[in-house]
Design brief:
- The chain is α+β, with helices and mostly antiparallel strands.
- It is 34% helix and 23% strand.
- The longest helix has 24 residues.
- The termini are far apart.
Length: 328
């Protein structure tokens, strides 16, 4: 029996494979992902159609389901890539939905239907979990999905030994994954031990964490050395410690973190992880955080425009103390 809603499916295995593929780009991993996509359901954000009069929603309560008038259909949200391409963004669970870009509707759809919709809309493709694994399926793959899945198959196989990407693309994907997933995941799991390890090992430990994914890639050395990082740790209070890490400017792109702040509360045994992002030339830097969702999963959220660098630490201290107090 086909699942009727996303509550009827378990996407945990799919999410594990998406993370694995995001890290290592192995065609064997993709060939495990594709059959799971063909059988699952995903979420897609959507907006009101432009002709809809929102005055019809007076009296509707936030968070409560609403019934649209006959003939009115939500318009799926579109993601725009740095190169200007347009994609549908789909998400394997509610925990993957972006918190900073909320839309009035969340559509629960079969992945195959999303592929058909992308074809009709003449988009460049579909991005799965854009704010975590960020795995993209472009137009040729979508066309192959529709053909294979509609025929009852398990989806197309990825040809060749590996999915190819340039060194620059690999560096970009790997750095984003380390900054927003791997490093905070290590700290959330090890808590005080992980925090103390960073304090004691300093730049050498950070460089090792950033270099570790490259050990599994033949012919590609890590671009990171200890001297590329700068780290400072201090005690804010008797209970709360803070680490500031300035990340390499070499090879950095808009969206990468230029600094991260980590705090640890001994009384709450609580790690907090904050990010300062490198902006595009016409945008301002943003302050974000990575939170632990469940079962080792992490989620990145944008909080607000970042303060001046001289005021960053004070802002992180205030946010951290507020969170600790809320746990008491």
């Amino acid at each position: 029996m086909e699942p009727k809603t996303i509550k009827d499916v378990d996407n945990s295995k799919l999410e594990e494979l998406l993370t694995e593929f995001s890290n290592h780009q192995k065609k064997e991993t993709m060939n495990q992902i594709v059959p799971l996509l063909g059988k699952t359901r995903v979420l897609m954000q959507a907006n009101f159609p432009p002709e809809f009069d929102r005055n019809q929603l007076k009296g509707a309560k936030a968070g409560q389901p609403i019934k649209l008038p006959a003939g009115v259909k939500p318009v799926p949200a579109i993601l725009k890539s740095n190169e200007g391409g347009h994609f549908f963004g789909v998400y394997t669970g509610h925990g993957e939905l972006p918190q900073e870009n909320k839309f009035p509707f969340v559509l629960d759809m079969a992945f195959l239907d999303c592929c058909k919709l992308a074809q009709r809309a003449k988009l460049e493709g579909i991005v799965v979990n854009a704010f975590s694994q960020n795995v993209t399926f472009k137009k040729p793959a979508i066309e192959a999905f529709v053909k294979e899945f509609a025929a009852g198959g398990n989806g197309p196989k990825v040809p060749g030994k590996e999915v190819k990407m340039t060194q620059e693309q690999f560096h970009d994907v790997t750095r984003r994954n380390i900054e927003l997933h791997l490093l905070p995941k290590i700290l959330f799991e090890k808590k005080e031990e992980g925090f103390d390890s960073l304090c004691e090992g300093g730049e050498k430990v950070i460089a090792e964490i950033f270099s570790d994914p490259y050990k599994k890639v033949q012919g590609l050395n890590s671009p990171y050395k200890s001297a590329d990082f700068s780290m400072m740790d201090l005690n804010i209070t008797e209970d709360l410690g803070l680490i500031r890490i300035d990340l390499p400017q070499k090879g950095a792109h808009p969206g990468h973190c230029k600094r991260v702040y980590i705090t640890y509360s001994e009384s709450s045994d609580l790690i907090q992880y904050y990010t300062i992002h490198m902006p595009k030339s016409d945008e301002e830097a943003m302050l974000g955080c990575v939170i632990e969702v469940e079962d080792g999963k992490t989620k990145h959220e944008i909080l607000e425009p970042a303060p001046n660098e001289s005021a960053e630490m004070q802002k992180i201290m205030e946010l951290s103390e507020q969170v600790v107090k809320s746990r008491i």
